[in-house]
Amino acid sequence: MTLYKGRIDAEPNELMDAMNKSLPVDIRFFPYDVNTNRAWARELCRIGIFTESERDNILRVLDEILARYNKGEFKTLPDDEDIHTLTERLLTESLGDTGARIHTGRSRNDQVACDLYQYLKDSLQMLKSHLHQLMSVLCSVSVTHAATLMAGTTHLQPAQPITLGHFLMSLAFALQRDFQRADDAIRRVDRCPLGSGAIAGCGFVVDREKIAAELGFAAPTDNSIDSISDRDVAQETAFVCASTLTHLSRYAEQFVIWSNPAFGYVKWDAQWSTGSSMMPQKRNPDAMELVRAKAARALGDVATLLCLTKGVPLSYAKDLQEDKEAVFDSIDTAMLTIQVFSKAMESATFNPAQMKKVLTSDMLATDLADALVEKGIPFRKAHERAAKFVTFLEDAKRDLLSATPAEMDTHFPEFRDAPLALGYEASLERRRATGGTAPVSVRAQIAKLSDWLKKNQI
Questions:
Q1: Cβ distance 142 to 156 under 8 Å?
Q2: What pLDDT does residue 235 have?
Q3: Per-residue pLDDT tens over the stretch 238-248
Q4: Which domains does the chain show, CATH number per domain?
């Protein structure tokens, strides 16, 4: 179908055709484009452009076209410019002038926006489903390890004792916010652009509220220029994907380190590991390494979408055609990565004994300072005294738990009447406040998120 022959009489240039054609990318809009055409055909019938018989024929052929698509007929792409041209051509070939009237009062500008908004709504819902599953897995693993001791770090240096369950739940709550971001984005994409025309709105008095309801949107968009020219819903969707993968990347990096035998904290199931083409002994955490890499890709998609619109004059320009490849890639990458991470985590084997071996007693220095505070010492002074004692023992190549009663009496006479018992489990138990690492607190976190997951079933 030639869309421009009334104005552009030159034969298509192969290079221009290759640059201009978007069908290889937007073919995935096919079901949504059929939906858009169905709604528009019904509205054109209501305002008298189609008779009821013509409308019914349009709807019948659209069903036939969609059935052909679902059977895989369009895996070998036809020579149409985009998905909208393909659908209109098929209608016209089947119904003649009736099919050719489907574009009355409509532009590809509002048509593509309508298809995009439908696609983003469904994709964000699917993203929420995958996030929900991953959070459920993290809760399940955290139940097992609510009291599993491990060395918490800051600056990659030993910090304080924590539990593995506490660590894993930190990711679960980060993903909860990504879920909420996706939910929030759905509210903004739940507006129907159809009926906005090319820029100025539809030249026929269509009922946009009715069209929106038919397509499952909460309401129509409010301004025709904004409707066809903005792509912030695609940008926001890409950001949700990038935020999610950035979270997963940070933890994947941690898990890659933990997989090294020098740590030995975790072993990945064979399905989520690879070997070496040369070194027979290798077992590489490639799933986590690829999670880390996919985050970079998702970040690039966000940058692409933001840069795409930053200088485009209003209202529509062909630049906006380039939004789809980036947003599709962002969504596809996020969907795959979340599922891989979830399955890998579900089958991972953690090594509590090895985690406990890595604990160092200098991690209890904060507990020592806190105990001094309980004896009335200002924290800053308590901090200094505890630090000097750790240094004293370090210089003697000893650790905090090796301190003798005499040394404790000398440096901390405050404890003579009630000797201070330092220990890793005791350190955990001190941190029972909401959000802390004490097993009772971790179990409360798991219960809270599990309850939220039940209330937000997908």
A1: no
A2: 98
A3: 999 999 999 99
A4: 14-104 (1.10.275.10), 109-357 (1.20.200.10), 361-438+445-455 (1.10.40.30)
